[in-house]
Design goal:
3-stranded mixed sheet, disordered C terminus, about 300 residues
Length: about 300
């Protein structure tokens, strides 16, 4: 419990707060605009924004909750709260994407008439706000699944605003009401596959899978290259949360090697080569015949 880590989500908390406030204010404006213009499309998008505000709020709550100190009962602390939030956000996004496609199917059969002018104005305001949100969260999305979930929600909103504007222009100039469901399908198809990747990443962490982009064979090969390492077994690499990989292993060293020196050296290599700073290494003494075999044949003892 002595380790002190700041999760990637924690480092993005300030930016998430700004995006949350902007999104909430726009959601209120969009609800008002929907009633003033009598636009069903804006009302539906406002409901979508309400879900996103809830998702951003959940992401912020997860970051705050995950910062609680570790206890005897929760020795890793509450870092995984962020991953649970990412999984829940992914499930909500998947449901939204499916609903958009379902609703678009109904509108293809009977497209409603929309007050296009007011819809375009309100959507344009939303486009600017969502662009700000994408700019603020784009870097953190590559570091934290929780932030990535919030980022995808903002991107979906941005595309929604853009789609509403384009559809509004088409309907305003041509009266072709099918533009509304057509662009809705495009938004739904954008949301679904990206949400699947988000949920897969969250499940991989919860199942303690190897972090994406980290090669276990390369880690094991680095250990075997050490002159004092005879063999390695029970090597496990997982993620405590996004951006915090952890490693445990049993490392057999040569009988004449200093275990503390080997431990310090390989931990430096883990940090420099793989950005792994949270390790639990069991140092074991190899038998003399194993060490000789490793030295003479230049292959790792198994």
């Amino acid at each position: 419990m002595g380790h002190d880590h700041a999760s990637a989500g924690m480092r993005q908390r300030g930016r998430l707060k700004v995006v949350f406030v902007l999104t909430a204010l726009y959601m209120v404006a969009e609800f008002i605009g929907a009633f003033v213009t009598d636009s069903l499309a804006l009302l539906a998008d406002a409901a979508h924004m309400l879900t996103d505000v809830a998702g951003l709020g959940l992401a912020l709550f997860a970051i705050w909750f995950s910062a609680r100190p570790a206890t005897a009962g929760m020795s890793y602390g509450y870092y995984r709260t962020e991953i649970l939030a990412a999984l829940l956000n992914g499930a909500v996004l998947l449901a939204i994407g499916g609903y958009i496609i379902y609703e678009a199917w109904g509108r293809f059969r009977e497209p409603p008439e929309v007050a296009s002018g007011g819809m375009i104005v309100v959507a344009a305001i939303g486009l600017v706000i969502n662009l700000i949100g994408v700019f603020l969260l784009r870097r953190g999305a590559g570091q934290s699944l929780n932030v990535q979930g919030a980022f995808l929600e903002v991107v979906a909103d941005l595309l929604g605003s853009l789609g509403v504007i384009i559809a509004g222009v088409i309907m305003l100039t041509t009266g072709w009401w099918y533009a509304d469901p057509l662009f809705s399908v495009g938004i739904g198809l954008f949301i679904v596959p990206r949400t699947y990747r988000l949920m897969s990443g969250a499940i991989n962490i919860l199942m303690e899978g190897t972090p994406a982009g980290l090669d276990v064979a390369a880690v094991e090969a680095m250990l075997h290259r050490d002159r004092d390492v005879a063999s390695v077994h029970d090597l496990h690499i997982w993620s405590i949360t996004s951006g915090i990989p952890a490693l445990s292993a049993h490392v057999q060293v040569r009988p004449d090697a200093d275990g503390d020196t080997v431990l310090e050296r390989i931990n430096r290599q883990f940090a420099a080569g793989f950005d792994i700073h949270h390790t639990t290494i069991q140092i074991e003494r190899a038998r003399l015949d194993e060490a000789s075999y490793h030295e003479d044949l230049s292959v790792p003892a198994r």
